[in-house]
């Protein structure tokens, strides 16, 4: 009787094709983003403590309790950290689109336009600010990191641009402190619109930005 010899072809493990690997990577990436989007929406609505992993799975279109979440994140803390990191990266990407370069026109008009960009930026990073306001005591290290990037590094970076772009036309010999004042004013204006539904004294943003710019640079003669 002839011994049984397994079919070598049948035993060969087929490696996924490059196209298949790309597809799987895309699906994994898409699922991960859905989980992050779901976690962001739920935590902003219910807080970290009021959001369960099964809630995130359901909101992301996964089967609750199936363990699908854990193929991408080890814990709720890890997904929350990933949400923070993603929103911070988005904030930094948005800031890179700001107008830069030497001011060649009316400095007040240029500054007013740049301040309106800053207000748009504050609107864009609203999810990050909301998360930070709600959960900063639970995640103090993340809060410190985000505060350092958005405030400390942001003010230093913008102060350097302000000083370099305006040069001697800047009506201040302390651009770093000046930017801290500007950021505080813009943040206060933004928060007033967010919480009270209208800007301070109902001053529209064009008028507000123009008034702020007039404090920093003289008009073109």
Question: Any descriptors?
Answer:
221 residues; Arc Repressor Mutant, subunit A; Tetracycline Repressor, domain 2; 2 domains
**Helicity, as a percent range:** 55-70%
Q: Give the CATH class of the largest domain.
A: Mainly Alpha
Task: Report the order of strands and helices.
Answer: HHHHHHHHH
Percentage of residues in strands = under 5%
Q: How many beta strands in the DSSP annotation?
A: 0
Low-confidence stretches: 8-13, 19-27
- The CA-CA distance between the termini, in Å, is 107 Å
Count of structural domains: 2
Protein structure class:
mainly alpha
In one word, what is the shape?
elongated
- Outline the biggest β-sheet: none
Oligomeric state, counting identical vs distinct chains: single chain
Looking at CATH, which topology of the largest domain would you report?
Tetracycline Repressor, domain 2
Over the alpha carbons, how many angstroms does the gyration radius reach?
25 Å
Tally the helices: what do you get? 9
Arithmetic mean of pLDDT = 82
Instruction: Tell me what the CATH architecture of the largest domain is.
Output: Orthogonal Bundle
């Amino acid at each position: 009787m002839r011994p049984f010899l397994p079919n070598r072809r049948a035993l060969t493990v087929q490696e996924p094709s490059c196209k298949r690997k790309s597809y799987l990577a895309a699906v994994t990436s898409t699922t991960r983003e859905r989980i992050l989007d779901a976690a962001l929406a739920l935590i902003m609505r219910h807080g970290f403590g009021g959001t369960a992993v099964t809630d995130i799975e359901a909101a992301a279109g996964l089967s609750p309790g199936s363990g699908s979440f854990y193929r991408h994140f080890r814990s709720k803390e890890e997904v929350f950290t990933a949400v923070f990191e993603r929103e911070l990266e988005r904030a930094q990407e948005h800031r890179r689109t700001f107008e830069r370069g030497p001011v060649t026109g009316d400095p007040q008009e240029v500054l007013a336009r740049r301040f309106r960009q800053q207000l748009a930026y504050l609107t864009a990073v609203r999810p990050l600010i909301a998360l930070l306001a709600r959960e900063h005591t639970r995640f103090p290290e993340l809060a410190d990191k985000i505060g350092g990037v958005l405030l400390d590094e942001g003010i230093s970076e913008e102060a350097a641009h302000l000083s370099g772009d305006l040069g001697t036309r800047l009506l201040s010999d302390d651009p770093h402190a000046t930017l801290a004042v500007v950021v505080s004013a813009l943040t206060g204006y933004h928060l007033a619109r967010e919480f009270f539904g209208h800007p301070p004294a109902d001053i529209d943003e064009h008028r507000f930005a123009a008034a702020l710019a007039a404090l920093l640079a003289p008009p073109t003669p």
